[in-house]
Design a protein that fits this description.
Layout lengths: L18 E4 L5 E6 L5 H9 L3 H8 L8 H8 L6 E8 L2 E11 L12 E8 L8 H15 L4 E6 L4 H8 L5 E6 L2 E7 L4 H23 L3 E5 L8 H11 L5 E5 L9 E2 L2 E4 L11 E4 L6 H11 L3 E4 L9 H16 L3 E3 L5 E4 L6 E4 L7 E8 L2 H14 L9 E6 L8 H9 L6 E6 L5 H12 L4 E5 L17 H10 L3 E3 L2 H13 L7 E6 L2 H13 L3 E2 L3 E2 L6 H13 L5 E6 L10 H14 L5 E5 L5 H5 L46 E2 L2 H21 L13 H12 L5 E2 L2 H9 L8 E3 L3 H11 L3 E5 L13 E5 L2 H15 L2 H4 L1 E5 L5 E10 L3 E8 L2 H4 L4 E5 L4 H10 L17 H17 L3 E11 L4 E3 L2 E5 L17
Helix pairs in contact: 6-11, 8-9, 10-14, 11-12, 12-13, 14-19, 15-19, 16-17, 20-21, 22-23, 26-27
Length: 945
């Protein structure tokens, strides 16, 4: 008789179970199924496990595995018996297995839905979160194979393993019998298990980035023997800023007797370095990178920054080279920035790391910066250098990451780090592509609730070097979803820096009310106009006249800040001529002291860059490096980020802790745009504290909908269901569709009208006429059979035979505003609910608003009000307001349908007539398909490569 253990090929090897994971300490491991080829690895792994751990696993001394044990633990059918291993460098560091059991506790097959699970973790890797990661993956495998419940028996002294189970967040039962703790838990994800999983994900990914940005030792691989070249330049950049750790130069071509390069210890290979290396910066040709990665992995290097080009950005061959690079780095448990990266910077005083191609280090500050390309990274640093000064001091950078092709470490990882980084108050990101929009949106929402996140998102296709998921959503829709998540979306690098400087220096405004004061009436009026255009509520500008003194500015600003009807202040200033005119420093001090006396409201300065005023506001406090910052031994030459103007050799002002710096802008529109973004973000933060709830409706028949969906999908994959079934499915969620009857002949039309009752509408539903009332394919308010037959004749005369028109008769709905409601499941972004007015507003002008599903009651309310044509719903120009609460309920019901049943991949309700009392759905289409994979609900994994 063939046993389960002998049926290795009962199912093909499940390659989709393979995954890379980030562990608790920031390292990585690979999880994969155990196969018959792993016998030697299993024996070697077991030999490295302590006797105590073996005792905890087998409840008795078990010094070695027998041949029978090895066979049983390596032969699986991948259904009833499954084993997974966590590996680093190809070797096992932990294993987990389950065996399906029946009600009697004996081995069983489906439909039995319970399994026993057991772990074994190598002692050297205990405490790294390996068991927790394996539990997530073995649970996902079990659910896929129809197992709904795990049981585990653990010795009471094995507190670590008990904690793994109890901390997982699953619904559990615990008992104690015969000296053994028995744990039983359901595998269905719960809110708590997902929260635990995501908290672990955040900590692990944040630590993996922290290890890259805060290394205790760095090796630059590829340092040239002669001055110049990428490797030699990066080595100099790290050395010259005073890096606090151990620094090494590596080049296999170094002479054996060479001890130092530019004062840095020199080595021919990484393995020749006498101590640990936390970070390797790789600057060798792409064909030599694999050998370097192998050396680094064998030496225990924790992370790589690969500056080398010649990867996915160069074409298909380079893409395969990049894939191999990522797999090789992960095999050794290393995280990777790049390839084709510009580098990383950390300005923390105890780190001072400039492992980048930027020859100058930005001043320390509270702004985190992320860019994918080196050119954008240079532009960001340059603009922040020029704009970094303020009335009361400087604004600088905490950390900077330019990820290049971002084959491994991405913006998502850096967001995880910034979320709880105490050195970063504002995050600025330039994203040419978003690899995982669903995860990015989730992380952005959480980050934005704690600190501002400003993003420029690329409009075109992703750069060739980037591997991203395809999305069917337009760029404007993705931008709207980012805003919904609290992201401050701007369009240019200039706007990115403008908003970042304001948010890093000033408190958030409590509302849209803006006071404007200054010594230029024209500049004040221009600022007023821009405020109105941005949706702010400015007060009449206060003109202090060109003769205003510093004391006048101080008094006016203090009064404006003290005014309870003011939420923020914009000060406009132009250079004035005359003995009484304030000097630059005097005016700056007047504004600073007034703002400090009444804190809590943001202050911005709009200045005309003439004379020395701009210098007083920013030059002496610029983030651009001063000559005094250059460490001994640095090479000379003009730094590329310095301002072209000369400045006095005074040291930059360092504001006291808690001081708010006043940002200055050279144009009113830039200042007001930044302020408007801050106002909108402040409003989002306040609303995020009470996001609303997803309401329950007693009349929803979730089980009935599931049964109908199952029957329809049995007919075939991916189908637009017929009208009758569409009405039935929507009806289970309390969404009635006004009945429409086919009218292939005039007599059939008359019979349909008698069944529905007059008045009726006659509509052509052919694809080229559907929802096109402007073409004349609709006749409304037909009061009797005579009018109906006349309308039928007119339609056939205009558009042809009934077979091509597909006419239908429908009862008249109350008059109102025609709208459209859509829901779609995008493979990258997830389920999205959209709303707009039907016709030209949505089709021609793109006036649609979007929210991620599930939608809360507060989000439904804001969705209705987000479109530009929303006034038409609320009594514009004396029209009767329509029933928006009924419309919001319809949106919530559609959201519930798609969220409860992921097989519903698309819903369109058009038109939806919103009347003064109630809504009428006149047309509906529903598309079903097998549900797409939800990787955000599955176990933690790194992006597949």
């Amino acid at each position: 008789m063939q046993t389960s253990a002998d049926r290795q090929d009962r199912h093909q090897y499940p390659a989709h179970w393979e995954a890379d994971v980030v562990l608790r300490d920031g390292g990585t491991a690979r999880i994969r199924p155990i196969t018959v080829d792993d016998a030697d690895r299993l024996v070697s792994f077991y030999e490295q496990v302590s006797d105590e751990s073996k005792y905890y696993r087998f409840f008795a001394p078990y010094p070695r595995l027998s041949a029978k044990d090895v066979h049983r633990f390596t032969h699986h059918d991948f259904v009833d018996r499954v084993g997974l291993a966590a590996t680093i460098g190809g070797e096992f560091i932990a294993t987990v297995r389950y065996d399906r059991i029946g009600a009697d506790g004996m081995p069983a097959s489906a439909p039995a839905d319970e399994a026993e699970v057991a772990f074994l973790v190598q002692d050297a890797h205990q405490g790294r979160g390996v068991a927790s990661a394996l539990l997530e993956h073995i649970a996902a495998v079990a659910r896929e194979r129809g197992i709904r419940r795990f049981a585990a028996e653990v010795l009471p002294a094995n507190t670590k393993m008990i904690k793994v189970f109890t901390d997982a967040g699953y619904t559990q039962q615990r008992s104690f019998e015969d000296g053994v703790v028995r744990l039983e838990f359901d595998l269905e994800p719960t809110d708590r298990s997902l929260a635990v999983q995501r908290a672990r994900e955040q900590r692990a990914e944040a630590r993996s980035v922290r290890r890259l940005l805060m290394p205790g030792s760095v090796a630059v691989v590829g340092v040239g023997r002669a001055p110049g070249g990428v490797g030699r330049s990066v080595l100099g950049n790290i050395r010259d800023v005073g890096y606090g750790g151990r620094l090494h130069a590596v080049n296999k071509a170094f002479p054996e007797d060479l001890e130092k390069v530019d004062g840095v210890p020199a080595h021919r290979r990484v393995r020749d370095i006498g101590g640990p290396v936390d970070l390797a910066v790789v600057a060798v040709p792409a064909e030599h990178v694999p050998a370097v990665v192998t050396e680094c992995g064998e030496h225990g290097v924790q992370g790589l920054v690969v500056l080398s080009a010649g990867y996915a950005e160069s074409g298909p061959e380079g893409r395969e080279r990049q894939r191999a690079l990522v797999q090789q780095a992960r095999a050794y448990g290393m995280r990777l920035i790049g390839p084709n990266a510009f580098g990383i910077i950390n300005t923390a005083p105890d780190v001072r790391l400039n492992a980048s191609l930027a020859p100058e280090m930005p001043r320390p500050g509270r702004i985190g910066m992320f860019a994918q390309s080196g050119a954008i990274g240079i532009a960001l640093l340059s603009r922040l250098h020029r704009r970094g000064g303020g009335v009361t001091g400087v604004t600088g950078v905490s950390t900077f990451v330019s990820a290049g092709n971002r084959a491994d470490v991405s913006g998502n990882d850096v967001l995880q780090y910034w979320y709880d980084d105490p050195e970063t108050d504002v995050a600025l990101m330039y994203l040419e592509s978003i690899g995982n929009p669903r995860k990015f949106t989730r992380l952005a929402r959480r980050t934005a609730a704690a600190k501002p996140l400003v993003v420029v998102q690329g409009v075109g296709s992703a750069p060739q070097g980037h591997t991203v998921r395809a999305t069917r959503l337009p760029h404007a829709t993705v931008s709207a979803l980012l805003r919904q998540a609290g992201v401050i979306r701007v369009d240019t690098i200039t706007e990115l820096v403008d908003a970042g400087l304001l948010l890093a220096r000033q408190p958030l405004p409590a509302g849209p009310r803006v006071a404007i004061l200054g010594n230029s009436e024209s500049l004040g009026v221009l600022t007023y106009d821009r405020c109105v255009a941005e949706g702010l509520r400015p007060s009449r500008p206060l003109d202090l006249t060109t003769g205003a003194t510093a004391e006048d500015f101080h008094r006016a600003l203090g009064a404006a800040l003290a005014d309870e009807t003011c939420d923020s202040v914009v000060v406009t200033a132009i250079p004035a001529i005359g003995e009484a005119s304030p000097g630059e420093a005097e005016l700056a001090e007047a504004l600073r002291s007034a703002a400090a006396a009444v804190p809590g409201k943001p202050v911005l300065v709009v200045h005309v860059e003439l004379g020395g005023l701009a210098e007083a506001l920013s030059a002496a406090a610029s983030t651009a490096p001063q000559a005094a910052d250059t460490a001994p031994g640095a090479e000379g030459g003009a730094p590329p980020f310095r301002r072209p103007v000369e400045r006095p050799p005074t040291a930059p002002t360092v504001p006291p802790e808690g001081t708010h710096l006043i940002p200055a802008y050279p144009a009113a529109e830039r200042a007001v745009r930044a302020l408007a973004e801050a106002v909108r973000y402040g409003q989002w933060r306040r609303e995020a504290m009470d996001p609303g709830k997803v309401p329950e409706y007693d009349d929803i028949d979730e089980k009935g909908a599931a049964r109908l969906i199952g029957e329809l999908l049995a007919r075939g994959e991916g189908l637009t269901i017929p009208d009758a079934e569409t009405c039935g499915l929507l009806g289970t969620y309390g969404i009635p569709v006004r009945r429409a009857l086919p009218a292939p002949t005039p007599d059939a039309a008359a019979e349909a009208a008698r069944a529905l009752g007059y008045p009726v509408a006659l509509k052509a539903t052919a694809p080229h006429l559907r929802h096109r009332a402007d073409l004349g394919g609709v006749r409304l308010d037909l009061a009797d059979e005579e009018q109906l037959r006349r309308a039928y004749a007119e339609l056939t005369e205009l558009f042809g035979e009934p077979e091509g028109l597909r006419p239908v008769v429908q009862g008249m709905a109350p008059r109102g505003v025609d709208t459209v409601v859509r829901a779609v499941i995008d493979p990258a972004a997830g389920a999205v609910l959209s709303f707009g007015l039907a016709g030209a507003a949505s089709q021609l002008l793109g006036d649609m608003a979007h929210r991620l599903i599930p939608v809360t009651d507060r989000e439904a309310t804001s969705l209705v009000r987000s479109i530009r044509t929303a006034p038409l719903l609320f009594g514009w120009r004396g029209s009767t307001p329509v029933d928006t609460p009924a419309l919001e309920e319809l949106l919530l019901r559609v959201s519930r349908l798609v969220d409860d049943h992921p097989e519903v991949v698309a819903v369109t309700l058009e038109p939806v007539v919103v009347a003064p009392h109630g809504v009428s759905v006149l047309g509906a289409t529903v598309r079903l398909a097998p549900p797409p994979a939800r990787d955000d609900l599955g176990p933690r994994t790194m992006p597949a490569y």
